[in-house]
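for the writeup, i need someone to sanity check this before i put it in the appendix. the sequnce is what the collaborator sent (i think, or maybe the updated version? ugh). structure was predicted straight from it, no edits. if anything looks off just tell me and ill rerun, i have time this weekend
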Amino acid sequence: MTLTFQDLGLSSSLMQSISKMGFEEPSPIQAQTIPLGLQNKDVIGQAQTGTGKTAAFGIPLIEKIDVKNNNIQAVVVAPTRELAIQVSEELYKIGYHKRSRVLPIYGGQDINRQIRSLKKNPHIIVGTPGRLIDHINRKTIRLNTVHTIVLDEADEMLNMGFIEDIEAILSNVPEDRQTLLFSATMPDPIRRIAENFMKNPELVKVKAKEMTVPNITQYYLETQERKKFDILTRLLDIQSPELAIVFGRTKRRVDELSEALTLRGYTAEGIHGDLTQAKRMSTLRKFKEGAIEVLVATDVAARGLDISGVTHVYNFDVPQDPESYVHRIGRTGRAGKTGMAMTFVTPRELDIVKNIERTTKRKMDRMKPPTVDEAIESQQQMTVEKIRSIVENDNLSFYKRTAEELLEEFDAQLVVAAAIKFMTKEPNDVEVKLTEEAPLFIKSSKNKGRSNNKRRGDYNRSGGQKKNNNRSYGDRDRGKGSYSNSAKRRYSNSK
């Protein structure tokens, strides 16, 4: 028998919101997490974005909110600004009919404006770790009345260097709280948080097969690092995607790729953690509206983004683990539509493809890198299709006289060939230079728990080098000149 939201015994105000949001029946993680949340139990949820985990923790969290109490009652900690905004919007919808007040708190936003908003007595705070610590240090946020705390995408916060900040936040919340921790993977530092800060947590795990999307065609292309960019542009010419996302491993890679694509005549822009919030939101808006045909992104910048209409995903750099791969390709093939995902691998990275296939229980088809001739031929075919469509559907009487004059002067085959050449977008050979990235390697059993590539340790998932990354998140996520003690230690150590 299928479980419904009515079976969960939720209040009428929540049921009203759930119905308005179009939810019909709980997803696997919701069906398991909501009853535990309502029983005030601590929960570890191992699940990716797109599985419905925001509602999984949001529904029991809001059910417990006392709207007559003007204190902060719940805190959700999220790794990025985008995710904090997205989670707060979802919680606002869930709590709409209950009239619970939700406030997002993140770096890059005027802190004085946030302080004014805090005086309006929000019930729920959704924040990034650095900015939350900043407010705790300023005493503009007090967590002594919090009964529920959620750590969303804990592994991402670990990768971004926020583990000490999370521990500091948890230390400021009453011990008799309820703690819900969500993480795609469970590395040792995340397990330690569960051991030290949670009370007999229940484990809810969504299996890999539930996280993959069946209507995505998956390919890998074996090539050398220096040939990747030309292959990418040929694929864009041949496949002519409506909306495409290209994933790069580092911030530098994203900047260089978006600039190189622009030089080759594509409308492309990049997003990563070092851009201002306004710039990131502006780029995403243009992408959603179709003003940008290619979005270049790091894993962290694209994490949690709700973008519909993406037809193609290109993994220019292989993802660091199978979970990241699932996140990346999950940007396409949504709402019942088909999608296509292509992953570029160097010969030394082929083991990563096998590891992804084992984890997702899905085989990637090998795709032969297209040649220049194939790209030109594909563009010609598109031009021919356009000409056919115009011949069949448009009134051409106004142009016939000019056509007759041309045919009197030149051979008909030559005229048509010239028209096709004029309308065909030929491959652009403007020279571009990308900084080469070292290949990734699979972790060996001898090296378990450590970085699987000597150079990998120099980068986090958002692509920033560690010595600069803490500084950039400190500057952006903590407000100017304001650091937590843990951030100060990391910053001074990184110099």
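The radius of gyration is 26 Å. The CA atoms of residues 47 and 234 lie 35 Å apart.
thx in advance!!
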